[in-house]
Design brief:
Shape: globular
Number of domains: 1
Order of helices and strands: EHHEEEEH
CATH architecture: 2-Layer Sandwich
Radius of gyration: 12 Å
Distance between the termini: 31 Å
CATH class: Alpha Beta
Helix content: 25-40%
Oligomer: single chain
Strand content: 25-35%
CATH topology: YaeB-like fold
Length: 84
């Protein structure tokens, strides 16, 4: 089982989202504890350990540290803003 950490900026962004997406994103983040590479996740090109999950028009960008069994959510944003 992995420990999930959420960056303060990602947590603030999550709180500002519409309720339906907020709940769906929370569920996806909870699922990262059991499986940090769930179906539908993609490794970002040009990044060492950064992955993304899609939830409607929103993206969850996170890193995985397999040695420490840790997942760190670094960005939660609309797709047009997530990769900037």
């Amino acid at each position: 089982m992995y420990r999930v950490e959420i960056a303060r900026s990602a947590l603030k962004a999550l709180q500002k989202l519409p309720a339906a997406y907020r709940d769906a994103i929370r569920e996806r983040i909870r699922g990262l504890r059991q499986n940090p590479r769930p179906p539908g996740c993609q490794k970002l090109r040009g990044e060492r350990d950064k992955f993304r999950l899609r939830v409607g028009p929103y993206r969850i960008l996170y890193t995985i540290d397999d040695e420490r069994k840790r997942v760190r959510v670094v960005v939660i944003a609309h797709r047009r803003e997530a990769y900037r």
